[in-house]
Description:
It is built from seven helices and four strands; from the N terminus they run βαβαββααααα. It is an alpha+beta fold and 204 residues long. It has two domains: 2-77, Glutaredoxin (3-Layer(aba) Sandwich), CATH 3.40.30; 88-190, Glutathione S-transferase Yfyf (Class Pi), Chain A, domain 2, CATH 1.20.1050. Strands 2-1-3-4 form a four-stranded mixed sheet, covered by helices on one side. The longest helix has 30 residues, at 88-117.
Amino acid sequence: MIRVHSTKASVNGYKVRMLLSMLKLPYELVELDMYAMEHKKEPFLSLNAFGQMPALTDGAYTIADSHACLVYVARKYDASGRWLPADAEGEAKVAEWLSKSANEVHQGPWMKRAKIRRPDAIKLPDEEIDARCDHILRIMDAHLAKRDWLALDRATIADVSCFGPISILKICGYDTDKWPHVTRWLNRVRALPGAHDLDGNPFA
Ligand SMILES: N[C@@H](CCC(=O)N[C@@H](CS)C(=O)NCC(=O)O)C(=O)O
């Protein structure tokens, strides 16, 4: 049985849950209480010594970090290679956007939401976070003006990853509508079979 160890509200955990749903893979969410700091204590620290969610277990196998989890699930359970191609050119394009997701998207869109949930921990001014969101979304908007998906001519784990934090920006007070190509891409991801919101509900 695949288990995702995370608080349900974790956007990084959300990425992994959404790919599992898209692949119709049964899994159990082992919920952690972030405010009780369960991710900084055992038994979670044995799964991820960094104390960050999510981690995934699949039988005796353990992997931590949302992007490593996405790579594992796609490579292990999607024999078609649709979500993570095996050819050097395709895989590198996906890795390029996973890297942007772990850096620019994390430092801007993810941070916007994190500050709402953990104002004690995120001290950056709102203006700085909004400027970081503008920076990555301006580049993504220009990129998506010429293509439907971030890495390849189809949805991949790069789209699943970047979608998580960007899709909830609007309810965090950042208006993504000002980026029309990003907005259309968000709707394309929402329309994919198995896509669901942070709470696990299918999009209307
Ligand atoms: N690079 C990591 C980042 C994970 C991360 O920041 N997770 C958040 C929840 S969305 C967390 O556990 N934050 C608590 C902390 O860092 O103390 C990943 O992609 O999984």
